[in-house]
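Hey, resending since the last one bounced:
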Amino acid sequence: MATAQLKIGGMTCQGCVRSVTKKLSGVDGVASAEVNLEAAKATVQYDETRATPAQLISAVQQIGFQASEG
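The structure tokens again:
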């Protein structure tokens, strides 16, 4: 398992957190996703043979939030 730390921009409420968590959790290979509104970050545990940080970032961007590694 690998861990990705993502910066997430544009979240304003717990509904946003749920949306981002659901989207990240739905990426093939993701074991867990923890999203923190106050820190504007996500910690994602994933199988590096099935997912990449770029795929995680893309998934978040698809639902209208900014995302980058960090």
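Residues 14-25 form the longest helix (12 residues).

Sorry for the duplicate.
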